[in-house]
Amino acid sequence: MWTPIAEEAARATRVLHPESLQLPRPRHRRVITVANQKGGVGKTTSTVNLAAALALHGLRVLVIDLDPQGNASTALGVEHRSGTPSVYEVLIGELSLADAAAVSSQSDKLYCVPATIDLAGAEIELVSMVARESRLKEALSSEALDEIQPDYVFIDCPPSLGLLTVNAMVAAKEVLIPIQCEYYALEGLGQLLRNIELVQAHLNPTLSVSTILLTMYDGRTKLADQVTSEVRGHFGDTVLRTVIPRSVKVSEAPGYGQTVLAYDPGSRGAMSYLDAAREIAEYGAEKGTE
Ligand code: ATP
Ligand code: MG
């Protein structure tokens, strides 16, 4: 997409000098679950980069890594070896959220509750627990968040619709669905939306899909444009105007324990995540969800 040079330069300045742009605080604390049971669509990449973009521009952000793979913890430079205080101990009621949260190496306003491999067994362990669907919601009470005071909480889900994802949907008001711009992108989306409706009907009536983010857009393919217009046709304004391009820098960053905003701030990937974060922040400041 062609944009005027002046606009490009202004964007670069915002990325390279984060202090030059302060994003507005939301009217209410926003708890956003990033979900799609399809694997590899950009859930984790979007969670960590949006979180970092908001934090680098003045907001307080907490990321909860709810995937035993621990990819979000890795990208945020947070320890997650087995035995590290993590979201697992929070779910089984052994630790408070604040005690499990670590400050990310990416920003002192960015916190992460890491996931360790211990979480892999939680899906089964939770089955027999009291209030098994609302363990995370309980852990996210406003008293529990007093210490961290986040403006935004992002919950990075595993690629399944099991109990961990259900916990994330019960704990949040909003769902952000990343959709990869490729052929099979829309497959499985119906199932995801039905599950969200089930959670709305039985467990969390306030839940809604507030945000859809198109990821890994490859401008060289016609297909990417077809997927983009199909998704926009279906979901209208819920889809962010910003589309995240496929970019090698985005995929390299986690290997250095970094978000792309730190790894290569001037790259298209970094700028587009900042643009997407700005849209999210502006929505939160204007409309909110309460
Ligand atoms: P999972 O379902 O396994 O949790 P996910 O939905 O969290 O996956 P990611 O881990 O964010 O997906 O991304 C999948 C892969 O695609 C990763 O290797 C990531 O680095 C890469 N990737 C994500 N976004 C981009 C992008 N914009 N450009 C290039 N590569 C990307
Ligand atoms: Mg992931």
Automatic annotation (TrEMBL):
<comment type="similarity">
    <text>Belongs to the ParA family.</text>
</comment>
<feature type="domain" description="AAA">
    <location>
        <begin position="30"/>
        <end position="208"/>
    </location>
</feature>
<dbReference type="InterPro" id="IPR025669">
    <property type="entry name" value="AAA_dom"/>
</dbReference>
<dbReference type="InterPro" id="IPR027417">
    <property type="entry name" value="P-loop_NTPase"/>
</dbReference>
<comment type="function">
    <text>May play a role in septum formation.</text>
</comment>
<dbReference type="Pfam" id="PF13614">
    <property type="entry name" value="AAA_31"/>
</dbReference>
<dbReference type="InterPro" id="IPR050678">
    <property type="entry name" value="DNA_Partitioning_ATPase"/>
</dbReference>
<protein>
    <submittedName>
        <fullName>Chromosome segregation ATPase</fullName>
    </submittedName>
</protein>
